[in-house]
Amino acid sequence: MNRQELIQQVKGKKNYLCIGLDTDINKLPKHLHASEQAVFEFNKAIIDATKDFCVSYKINTAFYEAMGIKGWEALEQTVDYIPATHFKIADAKRGDIGNTSAQYAKTFFEVYNFDAVTVAPYMGEDSVRPFLEYENKWTIVLGLTSNKGSEDFQQLVVRTESEEFLSELTPGHHHKQQYLYEKVMQQMAGWGTPENLMFVVGATKAEQLQQIRKAYPEHFFLVPGVGSQGGSLAEVSRAALHADGGLLVNVSRAIIYAGTGERFAEDAKTIAEQYHDEMNSLFEEASLAS
Ligand SMILES: O=c1ccn([C@@H]2O[C@H](COP(=O)(O)O)[C@@H](O)[C@H]2O)c(=O)[nH]1
């Protein structure tokens, strides 16, 4: 899916919800336990119930890889089942030396038909390039993540310079320090474009998100951390939503595990619809403001 098609989906539905299929075999409702294809059946029911209330699904590969071959089968069945209208993200957080990254890119873009894959940029340019080479596919690079550990490396000060010098380097930044995540995003923005590159910015970092949006007005951001991690949809949206959307806000556990019984899919639908309604209002607000 290209940028224009993604924007059309978001604007058409006034919705930027990405539902995370972090499907844990140990958390499935009891009545599915006997099924050979329990994970796919769970995902299928969630997708059927929620597809009108979101524009994207994110499959976190960890939950599938942990099941071995059966997990990969469930992943393939799920990605094939997601409607073509929805943006499909493999949250795999890959990145390695060039020839290995090329195999990761082939896995998620050719073997499995994902639109996007998350990439950890720590190994630098040659580790990211193979993903960026695919037309109409997206590389979603970790920028400032939602977890506490983002303080360990991402928020280290890498440079202290004069205000003028830094605002030239990173337009929109007017503070004297540059953090590692800013440096990474600045460099990454030069390797890709808003047509093929997104950044992950955690919903728990709404304050920094405002600065990041100023620096990158065109890029889409994938924003996880609303729901179970306590991030606020309203704060995130007011910090970074614009008339073309520019955001995909991910919610995983708070939607897919909204219910635990036989009506789990209906319960998920209820919560997804609540996010959809809130996004509709926030979208109106952002459109009026721009
Ligand atoms: O900074 C990050 C990057 C990725 N994630 C992933 O997003 C979902 C969040 O799940 P919730 O259940 O909605 O908390 C999950 O797959 C994480 O691995 C993130 O949380 N933060």
Features of this protein?
single chain; 290 residues; alpha/beta; TIM Barrel; 8-stranded parallel beta barrel; two-stranded antiparallel sheet; binds ligand LLZGTKA7; RibuloseP-bd_barrel; decarboxylase; OMPdecase_type-2; Orotidine-5'-phosphate decarboxylase
Number of domains: 1
Taken in chain order, the helices and strands follow as HEHEHHEHEHEEHEHEHEHEHH
- Strand percentage lies at 15-25%
Q: How many strand elements? A: 10
Mean pLDDT: 94
Bound ligands = the ligand O=c1ccn([C@@H]2O[C@H](COP(=O)(O)O)[C@@H](O)[C@H]2O)c(=O)[nH]1
Architecture, according to CATH? Answer: Alpha-Beta Barrel
Query: What name does the CATH topology carry?
Result: TIM Barrel
Figure out the total of helices.
12
CATH superfamily: Aldolase class I
- Percent helix among the residues? 40-55%
CATH class: Alpha Beta
Helix and strand content put the structural class at alpha/beta
What does this structure look like?
Strands 1-2-3-4-5-8-9-10 form an eight-stranded parallel beta barrel, surrounded by five helices. It is globular, with a radius of gyration of 19 Å. The chain is built from twelve helices and ten strands. The chain is of the alpha/beta class and 290 residues long. The chain has a single domain (3-151, 194-289), classed as Aldolase class I (TIM Barrel). The model has no long low-confidence stretch (mean pLDDT 94). The ligand O=c1ccn([C@@H]2O[C@H](COP(=O)(O)O)[C@@H](O)[C@H]2O)c(=O)[nH]1 binds next to strand 10 and helix 11.
